[in-house]
Inverse folding.
């Protein structure tokens, strides 16, 4: 598969040179970008149609400036158009233009979360743990029902009435049971006198628990940390996107941009070849 794409790439680059008159510098840039895409993207073939999922590639180039990302995506779109113009069936996914916000929620460290849990009351501890281990929105946490939990899975009611199933560790399920023994509820995990707790009430509980240990944290940061931890430890972006309930994997990339920029920075600081390269400049 990759060998065929590399051959197609060479034909495409010749086309840019002889038919379009592109400069050697531009052709080299296209060459490097397409090589990087072939080696990074999820590429499959089914019934004669080539499917290229760019999201792993998007994740890799996330630390780059918006202008550089746009240039790379433009080169890939041109390559795919060339393939289609030459009677090849190609599906390209994950090439959406994404506006990344100037500020992203900073992920927490595992140590910060466990430190807060050690000083939290039972309600705050359970709320924090569920957000951190399930990647829930605060609205989804509020609507989490006892009946939604079954066989180490929980049915989550997300945006737009969409539902998704998220795995639950046995230890987390036991934590819910222990909480319910002392705080029995009728339907929802978090209730007060038979009435579901509001989003604002749970949000305040979580913020107060972190403030107790000197941290300013929002519930959304726990969701962001969940996604970052999974992706930084080898989870497929498609799986994380599904677990988060995102309509598009491009949204998941926004959540993970900060964490991967950090990972790239640590890589350049730690790897001996990177250090040698920097020293030789």
């Amino acid at each position: 598969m990759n060998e065929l794409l590399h051959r197609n790439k060479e034909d495409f680059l010749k086309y840019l040179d002889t038919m379009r008159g592109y400069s050697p510098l531009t052709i080299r840039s296209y060459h490097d970008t397409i090589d990087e895409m072939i080696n990074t993207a999820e590429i499959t073939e089914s019934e004669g149609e080539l499917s290229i999922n760019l999201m792993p590639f998007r994740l890799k180039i996330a630390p780059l400036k918006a202008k550089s990302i746009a240039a790379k995506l433009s080169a890939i779109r041109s390559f795919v158009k060339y393939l289609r113009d030459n009677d090849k069936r190609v599906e390209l996914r994950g090439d959406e233009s994404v506006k990344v916000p100037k500020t992203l929620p900073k992920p927490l460290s595992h140590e910060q979360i466990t430190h807060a849990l050690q000083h939290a009351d039972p309600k705050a501890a359970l709320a924090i743990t569920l957000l951190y281990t399930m990647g829930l929105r605060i609205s989804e946490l509020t609507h989490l029902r006892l009946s939604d939990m079954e066989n180490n899975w929980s049915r989550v009611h997300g945006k737009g009435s969409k539902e998704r199933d998220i795995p639950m560790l046995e230890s987390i399920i036991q934590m819910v049971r222990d909480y319910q023994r002392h705080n029995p509820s009728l339907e929802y995990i978090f209730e007060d006198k038979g009435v579901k707790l509001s989003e604002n009430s749970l949000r305040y509980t979580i913020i107060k628990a972190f403030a107790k240990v000197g941290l300013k944290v929002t519930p959304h940061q726990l969701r962001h940390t969940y996604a970052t931890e999974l992706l930084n430890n080898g989870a497929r972006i498609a799986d994380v996107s599904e677990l988060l309930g995102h309509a598009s994997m491009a949204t998941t990339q926004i959540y993970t941009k900060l964490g991967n920029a950090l990972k790239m920075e640590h890589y350049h600081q730690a790897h001996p070849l990177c250090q040698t390269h920097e020293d030789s400049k």
Q: What stands out?
A: Residues 260 and 266 are 10 Å apart (CA to CA). The beta strands are 42-46, 49-53, 89-93, 149-150, 153-157, 163-167, 191-192, 195-196. The first helix runs from residue 2 to 18. The two ends are 37 Å apart (CA to CA).
